[in-house]
Specification:
This protein is α/β, with parallel strands linked by helices and about 260 residues long. Strands 3-2-1-4-5-6-7 form a seven-stranded parallel β-sheet, with helices on both faces. Helix 5 links the parallel strand 5 and strand 6. The longest helix has 24 residues.
């Protein structure tokens, strides 16, 4: 994919890391944002080196809060230098950071927790899209993709703010695709099944039980992997996917169809 770039918001682990590696293996440049400390920060540094070997060093990671508009504006000149006369083929929202709590008990959720979760997991994608449009990096054939979950339409223990944000993300992506479709820019969400990532361990102490239950529930008798999702994102990069827009695409082996 000559002179095409992917901007991955949330690139260090899980789905974001797998998507970055998959697209780098196909020759796409990778611009990634993550916000990590300690061992995970080192993992991200190693991932950046791995990607550099895959795609001829067309990679740049920033360990900064991609949901912060000041960060976005600060890094835009450097993104411009990297992309040059090329195209941002993909703007990928893979940020998994929000308040995992209930609305009422044991402690009522606070407004700042709701506002932060909404902005980080949904609204910031609007501002990234605006900025890239202004730079003319999103053009005919560009894709905008967000990751959603069953929690966007199902009530779950400890998932209240994130569930609301996932529903918001779907609405944001749908609206982006509706407004930009006439320019040949498409926007879709991917609903992955239960995936044993670092983000899953933050949602519930019972995450291991969730994984085992999912294996029985899923028609294919296994959980979703980040590589499954990365494969779907790769398919969406094809010109054959130009007419897929404003949709939620399921990548869960049929899990959402089973009780």
């Amino acid at each position: 994919m000559k002179n095409k770039w992917a901007i991955v918001l949330g690139c260090s682990t899980g789905h974001g890391a797998a998507i970055s590696k998959q697209l780098a293996s196909e020759g796409m440049g990778i611009i990634g944002f993550h916000l990590d400390r300690g061992a995970i920060k080192k993992e991200a540094q190693e991932l950046e080196k791995e990607i550099a070997l895959m795609n001829g060093a067309k990679v740049k990671f920033w360990n900064e809060n991609a949901a912060d508009k000041e960060v976005m504006f600060k890094r835009m000149p450097e993104i411009s230098d990297l992309v040059g006369s090329g195209q941002v083929k993909l703007l990928m929202h893979s940020i998994a950071f929000g308040s995992t709590t209930n609305f009422f008990e044991p402690t009522p959720v606070r407004q700042r927790q709701m506002d932060m979760t909404q902005h980080v997991m949904a609204h910031c994608l609007i501002y990234w899209t605006q900025a890239l449009l202004e730079k003319k990096f999103l053009t005919n054939g560009s894709r905008i993709v967000g990751l959603t979950s069953e929690g966007s339409y199902k009530a779950m223990e400890g998932y209240g703010p994130v569930g609301v944000a996932k529903a918001s993300l779907e609405a944001v992506v749908r609206q982006i695709g509706w407004e930009l479709g006439k320019q040949g820019i498409t926007a879709n969400t991917i609903q992955a099944g239960i995936t044993p990532t670092r983000a899953l361990t933050k949602i519930s102490e019972d995450w291991e039980k969730w994984v085992e239950t999912t294996k029985e529930r899923n028609p294919m008798k296994r959980v979703t992997t980040p590589e499954d999702v990365a494969g779907l994102v790769s398919l969406l990069m094809s010109d054959k996917a130009d007419f897929v827009n404003c949709s939620t695409i399921f990548c869960d082996g049929g899990e959402h169809r089973s009780l």
